[in-house]
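Task card 7
Instruction: Convert sequence to structure tokens.
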Amino acid sequence: MIIVTNSMSLDGVIQAPGRADEDTRDGFTHGGWARPYADEVMGAEMGKGMGRPGVLLFGRRTYEALAAFWPHQTDGNPYTEVLNNTRKYVVSTTLTEPLPWQNSTLIGEDVVATVTKLKEQPGDIAILGSGALVRSLMPHALIDEYVLLIHPLTLGSGQRLFPEDSSVKLKLVNSVPTTTGVIIATYQPP
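Output:
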């Protein structure tokens, strides 16, 4: 099962939720927009997903951002051990092996076939962020679940999860409101 987890504004923007300098492509100036909305409810819900066995799948940009941070953490954060020790697959045409973050494997060609084979293995495949990767897998019906952290703001511009020319039908299977107004909505294809 491939599970996508993404922070999203009400107008569908997923670009640079974590930091101001995270992704300034196309002049995007709203980076870090999701941080003020974090709370204990969100932490607990995201922690549930970290306990599932499986692997992580990233696009290059998300991988590089996470690899620059998590391997250097020593504060006992429970995410640190999971992210560092879990097998990671990275889709990129520009990176080369060996990849710097432990347990990382490069997927450079035939992404759809490789991801399809990964789905045949036991355990879930979690995709965090990685909008371009997610959009490339959508037409092949490879995404089994979307966990969308829908934040109560609009940004007006930025990279969106769902392409403007796409039609995606989803069924709501769970929703959890946070104390800051974020709705953690879990959707699956019908």
